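Lab notes, practical 5.
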Amino acid sequence: MDNVPISGLSELQAHLQQLVNDPSIPFKVKLLDDVELQLTKDNIPPLLPTLLPLSTETLKTTTQDPTPLLSLTTKLLSPLSFTRTLTIADPPSLLAALRSPLPGANLLALAIVGKAADSPSDASILSTLPEVVDGIVRCWLASEDVGVGECAARVLGDLLETDCPTLDNGIDDASSETGSNSNEIVKRRAVGHGRLWQLLLLRRPNLSLIQQHCSFVEPREQAPPRSVRQVTISQGRLLRILPRLCTLNIAALSRPVFPDLFVSPVADASGPGQGLLQWAALGMVDKSDVLMHLSLVDFFETLVSVMRVSKRSSALDTFIGKLVKAALQSDDELETALKTLPDRTVEEEAESLRKYIASLL
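Output from the prediction step:
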């Protein structure tokens, strides 16, 4: 199959060279799509020396919607391991692409670093590049481009899932509240090394970065002040990724690693405690902002939905209950939303969800 000629290949090479010379030339979308459809794991390797430099160079400079060319480039990268891609795009190049104001460059870098989610060992290698990880976090929280922000969130979630040092929140079958059922979230097969978790969520630099982007505080290091819109975008992105991470390792998200960074408004001993999760759920959002309050409600609806189908211990249920009760103390709309959530869920799941929410309340 690798000897079958690729239709349009010469035309594609010429087009990519034109784009390198003049990034303003419109993409020939049909040509890009037609060649991509013909690419296989067998015929890609001989094409890499000619096509990959041209496509990556264009992505780093184009101001057009990069989607068609990014799709082709991602297909070209597919047979390569993360370590192999690092020989093509070294860490300084990745960092420059992540910091670029152009979405195409950001998305190219994210496609490359996302390959580190293929194995725990690759995720560990990425953890040795803290500046690159910092660049991923900044793309996730600060990019004005929706596509870049969403892609960075997916990449971060995939990386942390691969690197997670526990399975099922560290809960074994004997202590599980749910046991095995068809509605459980699909289990991971391997335990990660936890080095990205340490770097991202248990060390001060990246936790400070999250806190600063999601707070209405004076910026440090003479950075320009962030607008309300920029802060709320960051807050929304944090709220959307947390439920997924809670199904992996909720302990890392809820422990008070640096209490001064994430001060919970619920300080009594019977409350849920302090940590990134508690701060985001209880203290981060200005509820007078209607859209952000809706985002917070959506966060809690997603959290209880995914935790119900996760493996849980009684201690974990107790913690989730404390978190939900603390949130309901001054939020009637949230209480109504949670109580009516089963009515907006598929019939097969509704009764189980209703019972779980009742147990939390």
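Observations recorded by the TA: The chain has 18 helices and no strands. The radius of gyration is 23 Å.
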